[in-house]
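Hi D.,

Good news: the full-assembly prediction came through. Inputs first.
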Amino acid sequence: MDSERAVAVAPARAARWVGRRLLAPQAVLAVLLLVVLAYLVVAPLFAVVTTSLIWQPADTRLTGVDVEVGRFTPYHWQRVLASPLTRNLIVLPLLRTLAVALGVMAVVTVVGAALAWLVVRTDVAFKGAIATLSVLPYVLPSWTIALAWLTLFRNQGVGAPRGFLEYALGWQAPEWLVYGAVPIIIALGIHYFPFGYLFFAGALKNLNTELEESADVLGLSRWRTLVRITFPIIMPAILSVLLLAFARSIGTFGTPAILGLPVRYYMVATQIYSLNLTGREGQAYVLALALMAIASIGLYLNFKVLGTRKSFDLVSGKGGRSRIVKLGGWRIPAGAGTLLFLAAVGLFPLLLLVWSSLMTNQGDYSLANLSLHHWIGAGRPGINDGEPGVLRNPLNVIAIWNSVRLGLLAGFACGGLGLLIGYLVARMRGSLTVRFIEQVSFVPMLVPSIAFGAIYLSLFGRGGPLAPALYGTFALLLLVTIGKQLPYAARAGISAQMQVSKELEEAASVLSVPWHRRFARILFPLTRPAFLAGALIVFITTMRELSLYIMLVTPRIRLMATQAFWYTEVGFRQLADAFTVLLVVVILVVTGLVNLLNRLSAGRVRGAS
Amino acid sequence: MRIAVRHLTKRWGAVTAVDDVTLELEAGGFTTLLGPSGCGKTTMLRMIAGLEEPSSGEIRMDDRLVYSSAEMVNVPPGRRRLGLVFQSYALWPHMTVFQNVALGLAQQGARGSDLTRRVREALDRVRLPGMEERYPSELSGGQQQRVAIARMIAVEPAILLLDEPLSNLDAKLRLEMRAELKRLHHDLGMTVVYVTHDQIEALTLSTKIAVMDRGRVLQYDEPDVVYRLPATRFVAEFTANPVMNFIEVDVSGQGTVVVPGAFAFTVDGIVPRPGRYLLAVRPEDCRVFEAAAPRTVPFRVYADLSAGPDQFLQVRSGGIQLTVRTEGRLRVQSDQEVHIAFAGGHLHFFDPQTGERVGAAAAAPARPAVSSAAAPPGLEAGRQVPS
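Then the structure:
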């Protein structure tokens, strides 16, 4: 019937009718985003599966099997899942990864909850300082704590240069305290507990205290109120924290590498790296897929539990006055103790790194040994193989430049994509295409960083019909960053656009303002704060990200993080420490500059009514 | 500009928001789409504006086809020469009042002093001079409302669409803005389409009212006609001020209306055929007497709801509850006996199944089931039997 009607109507008019639909801004945008997402998310996922199922060029070295590059083979899967090597290749690393993740979850929950409770629900002294310092460990690159840990605990007993404790006290820490599960859990726990603190503090602040007061009135004890009322209500926050700690810690590479590899304590992330390094890419991808599977199970369980607990949305109801617990005589000791703890896990590692970077010779903590040699000194034979100071190395300048522009470009690209995705989701809710775009843009969250890097390597490594060979280019780093950070940017973009009523745009379209001007004059100015905040978060994350890039960088394309890791790997400890300190400084400087620019350029913009 | 809507339908999946509506809005008129939330009135307005695409049907403005599913015509909102004032005002919060009003004018090509002059004019028109540099958040609700109107009338549209523009204002401001809107319509001579769920607003402002329910137009008439001759039970209920009394009655062959188990009275003139009906009577069409008089029905006062000059009584008799309005103040106490007479010509009979109107009749000797007496003198005075 439709076709008959089309014939009856003038063809030009029919063409306009159809064209207007196809060329509607939303339709064009939806198609564009579909293409971008197919390229950044769907194609890489597809590639990693196929790559794990075909012979790789490097496999030709294998003996005893019939290798034909490019042909289908179950070899890599068999090798990982059902061979004499299975235990060492996947079972042990998997168990260790899970054990470490559980440990990290415990540390993050306990420390985060305790800090949040102290800050939100007690009259503890030095509250402001505690709140600020509680976030510091997360601003530092995740491997900073690991480097500091080694500087503190390593000793000649475990075959390493003298650490600070050995130098100062003559005490040699046992190996389990220097390398392996325990220090990895502690280092990652310290890095991620700010997550726990932020989530719990948010939940406690928003918790309607009348719910607890009702229990009080009914005569429940404090403890019972906590267990029966408070705890179940903040359950979603607890689950979010657990999931984040879990997903992040199974995909992280730097800390397990620094604290595990010297004693061959392999976790999945480091196993993927070393498999890839030794030309066993197919097997690396199988492991990457295993990691994704685990992350997905975690996320699924989280959704399932949260799904049945939807009714606890009332957490975000009005935040009443909090019930403040009076600590009495404990007010100052508790505050001071907490500050001391936070300084020990946040400030102290940084100071230790600064100190270490100033030590001319490793293991000598005397003042006489301090110099700027590893910062600005020309190479001297006998000290770190004559490697020059970090500021003297032109390659480092390139690394700094690469990191900064990668962070900024990815930040703006992600911020922009996030706003566009948010626009579509907010305007076309319920449309199937848009729901698909939304879902796909969240997929990278499921993929642990190291696995995401591996996936991009499989797609862009050698190039193919789908993708050009980008290995060793800046473009590849940019693509992988945008892909990985997209979920966070999309989330920010969606919540920003949801807050802009669609009527604001409709008012302009009634006045015949075209789409591009509506976006430039109305939508963008109103979502700009969210855009900048999102870009800044992506920038900071990119600057200190190591796991994502470790398999993608080449000597030609370096980043600050990978360069710092390279220094560690070859044993130039002071240089690694110096460069890490420099990285923190660059992050702080650029963040400060962006904030300053933002404040200067922001007009008298009022919040949407 | 005349707006003709033919067989307009809008479906969202299984939900039909607007169901085959045909309506002709006269040029220069003030037409109100009146109905409860979810009746499809806002969807109608948005389809006229071009912000929502109909599922089928056509819309013409004068002789210009702006939408037709059969002819494959869909003129975008910006080219329909209309203005739309949103319920939320939808002022751009990051722009000053001047910039808010200027954006549409600039799009039309106005520049420099011409732009400034026309912005001033529009702001003067809504009586908001000197506010150009303020931001929307620095204005009161009423002022924001005026900016929203100024923004749309500045571009001199032929049609002005208003979507519940007064619902966010307090009672006093609402009254003031009603007068302003009426004046604006008079001065500019635009065709206005107004959406509201407030029957007083509709009755006050409109030249014509379309009462809508569940996507259909139940009655399309002048306000006076809608009020006096509601076409359906729903219209009667929705235009009630503040409530409508509904009683299930039996009409017998002699024009006698019997309220089963309570009372009965006789009706003159056109009487529906014998049978069961739903009788509707407005509070002001019931007269209240302190003492028993001929043709009155005794009731007991349940509650006295007085506010200032208005006095409404809730009265009960034999399980029937009525809300009645007194003329002047009566000093009554709960459970006191009062006597009600039903004013002639203002009884509405509806089919209890379909809710359709079946013809009105003047109440003649209403007699209590227990007594039969003559009507009090002067009852009919000043009341007119509807034509």
